[in-house]
Amino acid sequence: MSKKSSKKRQPRVEAKKQETVVFGYEDLLTELEAIVADAGLRLEEEEAAL
Question: How many CB atoms are located within 10 Å of the residue 37 CB?
Answer without folding.
Answer: 10
